[in-house]
C-alpha cells in the first residue's frame, strides 16, 4: 500500500517536473475537496469547500424563494416571478405525471429540483466548487428517490407493486423474460439517475478546464477562449436540463409507485 | 515536518504531494462521509424552508392572484352589464323624448289648424254678411234709381208734352213711361 502510494507520488512528481513547459492540464483539480480552515484531514464533520458551496446553494434558494416573495405582491417583481415560475413548473410537472395523488410529494420534488438547479448554476461561477459533479452528492439523491419509490410502492400497493415487473400487455411466454429485464432496469435506475447528473456536470466542467489549459499557448488562445465561451453556453443549458431530467425522472418513478399497473 | 506522513496518509490516496488530483476526485471514498453529511444537512434545511415557508407562501400568492383576477373579471362583467343597461335606458329616454316632441308638435299643429279654421270661418261669415249687406244696398239703390228714373221720365215727358202744346195726361204718361221702362 505504502509503496503504491509512493509510486503514485513519484509519477505525479515526474508530471509536475514537466510543468516547466507551457501546457499544464489539471482538469480534475477543481473537484478536489479541501478543508475550509486548513488542516489535512477530512473527517465527516469537517467544514470543507463542499460545505461552503452547499451553504451558498441554501442561501440562493432562500433568496430566490423566500426573500423575493416576502412582499407577497399581486403584481410580482422579477425575482418573485422567477419563484412563481419555478413553483408552477415543478407543480405542473408533478401533477401531469403523477396526478392529484402525487401533489403531496411536491415539497420533496421541489427540494430536489431547487437544490440541483441551484448547485448546477453556482458551479458555473468561475473558481467555484460544483457539488453536483460529485457522485457522493448525486448517489444519495438518487438512492433517496429509489428508496422512497420502493417503500411507497409497497406501502401503497402491497404485493401489487410487483405487477410493475409483470408486463400484462405482453404475450404470456415473454412475460418472465420481460420481468427479469424490468427488474434489472428497476435496480439500475438509481445508478443511471445519479451518474447521468454527475457525469454531465463533471464532463462539461472538465472540458472547459482542458480548453483553458490550451490558452497558455498564445497562438491557440483565441480559439481556446471561443471554445470556452461555447462550452460555457452549453453548460448553462446542461445545468438546467440535467436538473429538469433528474426531477422529471423522479416524477416518473413516483408515478410507478402510485400507479404500478401498466 | 513531522505531520507530513500523516498528511500523506490522510490525503494521499486522492491528492498527490503537489495538491493535484489523482484520478477522479469523485471516486475518492475518503471524502464521501463528509460530502454526504453536509448534503443531508443541506437537503433537510432546504426541505424545511420550502415546506414551511416558501411553498405555502407562493401557493397563497398564486391563489390570491387567481382570486383577484376572478373578482376583477366578475366586476368587469358587472360593469359591462351596467353599461349595456345604461345605454338601453338612454336609448329609451331618447325615443320617449322624440315621441313626446312629435306629440307636442302635432298638438300645436292641430291647435293652430283649429284656430286657423275658426278664423277662416269667421272671416267667411263676415264676408258673406258684408256681401249680403252690399247686395241689399245695391238693390235698394237700384230700386231707388228706377223710381227716380220713372219720376224724372214722367216729369220730363209731362214737360215735353206741355212744351209741345199738348195737354199732359198724367195717367197716359205714366203708362207710357212704364211701358218704355219695361221695354
UniProtKB/TrEMBL annotation, chain A:
Lineage top rank: taxon: Bacteria
Subcellular location: Cell membrane; Membrane
GO (cellular component) term, any one: plasma membrane
Keyword Transcription regulation tagged: no
Gene3D superfamilies in the record: ATP synthase, F0 complex, subunit A
UniProt main location, coarse: membrane
TM region positions: 50-69, 105-129, 135-155, 162-188, 208-229, 236-255
Membrane topology summary: Multi-pass membrane protein
UniProt-listed InterPro entries: ATP_synth_F0_asu, ATP_synth_F0_asu_AS, ATP_synth_F0_asu_bact/mt, F0_ATP_A_sf
Keywords: ATP synthesis, Cell membrane, CF(0), Hydrogen ion transport, Ion transport, Membrane, Transmembrane, Transmembrane helix, Transport
The keyword Ubl conjugation belongs to this UniProt entry's keyword annotation: no
Function: Key component of the proton channel; it plays a direct role in the translocation of protons across the membrane.
Record family assignment: Belongs to the ATPase A chain family.
HAMAP family according to UniProt: ATP_synth_a_bact
Name of the protein this chain belongs to: ATP synthase subunit a
Gene name as annotated: atpB
From TrEMBL, chain B:
Cell compartments where the protein resides: Cell membrane; Endomembrane system
Alphabetized CDD domains for the sequence: ATP-synt_Fo_b
Coiled coil: 76-142
Transmembrane segments: 36-55
GO MF assignments: proton-transporting ATP synthase activity, rotational mechanism; proton-transporting ATPase activity, rotational mechanism
GO cellular component: endomembrane system; plasma membrane; proton-transporting ATP synthase complex
UniProt keywords, alphabetically: ATP synthesis, Cell membrane, CF(0), Coiled coil, Hydrogen ion transport, Ion transport, Membrane, Transmembrane, Transmembrane helix, Transport
UniProt topology in membrane: Single-pass membrane protein
NCBIfam families referenced in this protein's UniProt entry, alphabetically: PRK13454.1 (NF009988)
Known function: F(1)F(0) ATP synthase produces ATP from ADP in the presence of a proton or sodium gradient. F-type ATPases consist of two structural domains, F(1) containing the extramembraneous catalytic core and F(0) containing the membrane proton channel, linked together by a central stalk and a peripheral stalk. During catalysis, ATP synthesis in the catalytic domain of F(1) is coupled via a rotary mechanism of the central stalk subunits to proton translocation. Component of the F(0) channel, it forms part of the peripheral stalk, linking F(1) to F(0). The b'-subunit is a diverged and duplicated form of b found in plants and photosynthetic bacteria.
HAMAP family xref list: ATP_synth_b_bprime (MF_01398)
Quaternary structure and interacting proteins, as annotated: F-type ATPases have 2 components, F(1) - the catalytic core - and F(0) - the membrane proton channel. F(1) has five subunits: alpha(3), beta(3), gamma(1), delta(1), epsilon(1). F(0) has three main subunits: a(1), b(2) and c(10-14). The alpha and beta chains form an alternating ring which encloses part of the gamma chain. F(1) is attached to F(0) by a central stalk formed by the gamma and epsilon chains, while a peripheral stalk is formed by the delta and b chains.
Recorded family membership: Belongs to the ATPase B chain family.
Protein name according to UniProt: ATP synthase subunit b
Gene from which this protein is expressed: atpF
